[in-house]
């Protein structure tokens, strides 16, 4: 029988286990990097009504006149002659929140009583300036607790009748 021989030129036979040891590193590289977690906890916001927005006692002849109560309790408008008595004053609320956080204050959902409409709300938070706070609201400074004064314009709608005509509006305060 003829003898067959296989010849490999230039190859060196190395056992399989030795080849793996030469090709792959003996241990996988591992890197660990600690990552910090950054967060702040804030106090719940509280709103306390100290006193309501007050227009006092008005003559029911309030047609389309306006009575404006400012944040400093000043009174103006075309209907001031129809104020018969009582107290006229801005709403007075106390807001408590985390001191380092900026607040957003919004007055909306005015629900007037019979005979008038409410609008053009102006707010003063703490030592801040008078600022419109209806519509888009406004951003207030960061203080732990401060007084929020709210003034507004009352406009007669020619339907007032004698009696109580209480209304309301919402005040929403959120962290910015």
Describe the structure.
This protein is mainly β and 176 residues long. The protein has one domain (46-175): Immunoglobulin-like (Sandwich). 5% of the residues lie in helices and 38% in strands. It has 1 helix and 12 strands. The protein has one helix at 16-23; strands at residues 46-51, 57-58, 66-69, 75-76, 83-85, 91-96, 103-111, 116-125, 131-132, 138-140, 145-156, 168-175. The strands form 3 sheets. Strands 1, 3, 4, 6, 8, 9 and 11 form a 7-stranded antiparallel beta sheet that branches. It has a 3-stranded antiparallel beta sheet with strand order 10-7-12, with no helix packed on it. A two-stranded antiparallel ribbon has the order 2-5. Strand 3 and strand 4 (75-76) form a beta hairpin. The longest helix is centred in the first third of the chain and has 8 residues, at 16-23. The chain is elongated, with a radius of gyration of 37 Å. It starts with 15 loop residues before the first helix and ends with a strand.
